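Re: weekly structure request thread

Next one in the queue (513 aa):
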Amino acid sequence: MHQKWTARSSLLALAAVLATAATAQDFTLALDDPHLNLIPRTAAEAARIAAVTAPTTDFSTAQKFEEKSAGAATVRARSDADAFSQPSGNIAFEDELNFKVGNGLFRKLWVSSPSSTLASDGLGPLYNARSCQRCHIKDGRGHPPENAEDNSISMFLRVSIPGTDAEAIGQIEGYIATRPDPTYGAQLQDFAVQGNSSEYRLDISYEEEVITLADGATASLRHPTYTAADLGYGPLHKDAMLSPRVAPQMIGLGLLEAISAADILANADPEDADGDGISGHANIVWSQVHEQPMLGRFGLKAGNPTILEQSASAFVGDIGISNPIFQAGSGECTDLQADCMASIHGDGDDREFEIDQIGLDLVTFYSRNLGVPARRNVDDQQVLLGKQVFYETGCTSCHTPSFVTQRLEDRPEQSFQLIWPYTDMLLHDMGPALADNRPEARATGSEWRTPPLWGIGLTQQVSGHSYFLHDGRARSLLEAVLWHGGEAAPQRETVIQLPTAERDALITYLESL
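Done, posted below.
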């Protein structure tokens, strides 16, 4: 049975309950994987896994199975824009129908209530997009507006204000309390159904910074300034913290969900005990489904523990669609938005919610099974040189190359696969230049989850652009590397000093992922 909360009240109500129930001092945190039906590993399996995922020191040839980014779930690397829209390579024939129906719901255009299409009404009243696919274009990355006339449909601003110590979740050590903006909620929506005002218009301006590399070549970094313009409901709270987000790519999510929490936590080094300058730590969040602290895995700051909860929060926040986990038919409307709260909603019919549990599960299944394309040119000599540069520069300190997923009783597509996502799934301080100065659970305002790199070389082909990082400010892979600061500042400086051939090889390697 899923615990049910409204989008507006869940965090505050939860904090109040936990503050009286437990504190960090009397709670022993033991993260496990309650979302997975596990078959325990044997000692022999653990030894095999340690051997197969050990970092390589041989760059003369590709590693065994390296081409298969997602193990048996890997799909062929298509040459068109549908490269990220294929089902897991090992999906059973009888499950392909569930994948296709989930895809239909993912692409579905929702309409406002009341409507004759009862299965599709309930949009908004405030929303960022009418479908999941409108943000995750071709299941790939979103992008910032190209110019003042372009829309920001695959990008928005999260918003919160500082909370109090009493509102922190006592069972999660290091939890940083925040609250939604009292007027605008937890994110800003730039669209509204008829009879309502949208909340804002996203305005972005850039200032260019030229970086000179050791060989005399230059690169330009664009520093963004974000403005919530044309506010529809009065000013934001004076302490409002804004965080720009573009929609991330969707491939391989089920495999990331199937990595053992213990394997991820084994790479954490919050006090930098090994002295390598890297101090990754886990985001720990409250699961509203499992009613316990869980490892955060999804979202740019790892703010959600499962694909199910990530999907449910996106439905209510991005589209305004109520569901069994976030039940408010008013979506992200707040009590200070009276017309929005009074608008007609699409719940209360046979569905009970605007998307019911069956629909939510189908979208989750689809999202869990979007296949990862195979690597390209893994034995190419320039790719191998770039791989050596990637490893020896220290990029793998955060972009962990490989894991083996858990053995699972009921998810054969994700069960016991050797995967190559190039992420440690941990939070890292990326320095002031990339900071949004907005905390999220245990993530500070300068910390981000290491993004997976698999499929990154197909971004232009799938999404029609080459914008990277959490807000799409980087216009190329080289720019993305040069934005690294904080814990990754030494690696950034190493790349700046690379000979031309090695820098070019590094980019070629990244493009092969």
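Confidence is low (pLDDT under 50) at residues 1-29. The CA atoms of residues 24 and 171 lie 5 Å apart.
Next request, please.
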